[in-house]
């Protein structure tokens, strides 16, 4: 299912056939450096199954980000279930060769618009590793505001978090 079409990108729901492309992202240690590390194919297959089910049951999930020109899936951007903060989390991971081209901001904006149109939630949250300056910049550009620090189960550490209020 297509979620959004932006100037350069298509966002669509994930399916089982995306596992190879996802391994370029979730299986890459550099990409996942601030997100709990790279996963094995087996782990990411389970994650994909979980996310496909999340989409069916709740109407949100991480979406595949496709380059309109090449048709390649080179990123994921979308939503994780409520975390320790009690709010649905915005997440984004892109293959390294595509960093620094404005894709995270473009895809993140499309996800926020989708959440608003679908009435999924009244606020979004995002934890960041304090060393992940790129991610903090994306959140601020998207209109998230710093709210404090809290324990993040995903990383096992206390981290700053940002919130977007609709
Ligand atoms: C973090 C990440 C999503 C940023 O994606 P991106 O497509 O490069 O981001 P954008 O191009 O939209 O950049 C937005 C702004 O952040 C800046 N930025 C991007 N990476 C940066 C970095 N490493 N350090 C400092 N600023 C950075 C850009 O210059 C841009 O600012 P500008 O508009 O003033 O020029 C990408 O690097 C990535 O996928 N990293 C690995 C996964 C990850 O860490 N995800 C977040 C987990 S919380």
Task: Describe what you observe in this structure.
It is a single chain. The protein contains four helices and eight strands. The protein has helices at 19-26, 41-58, 103-118, 133-142, and strands spanning 2-5, 9-12, 62-67, 73-80, 88-94, 123-127, 145-152, 157-165. Strands 1-2-3-4-5-6-8-7 form an eight-stranded mixed beta sheet, sandwiched between helices. Helix 1 (19-26) packs across helix 2. The two termini are 24 Å apart. The structure holds coenzyme A. The site of coenzyme A has 21 residues, from strand 5, helix 3 and helix 4.
Give a short account of the largest sheet: 8 strands, mixed
Radius of gyration: 15 Å
According to DSSP, the number of beta strands is 8
The whole-number mean of residue pLDDT values reads 96
Instruction: List the uncertain runs.
Output: none
Query: What best-fitting shape do the alpha-carbon axes yield?
Result: globular
Number of helices: 4
| Structure classification | alpha+beta
The sequence of SSEs as H and E is: EEHHEEEHEHEE
Hetero groups in this structure are: coenzyme A
What is the number of independent domains? 1
Straight-line distance between termini: 24 Å
Considering DSSP H and I runs of 4 or more, what fraction of the residues is helical?
A: 25-40%
CATH superfamily: Gcn5-related N-acetyltransferase (GNAT)
Percentage of β-strand residues: 25-35%
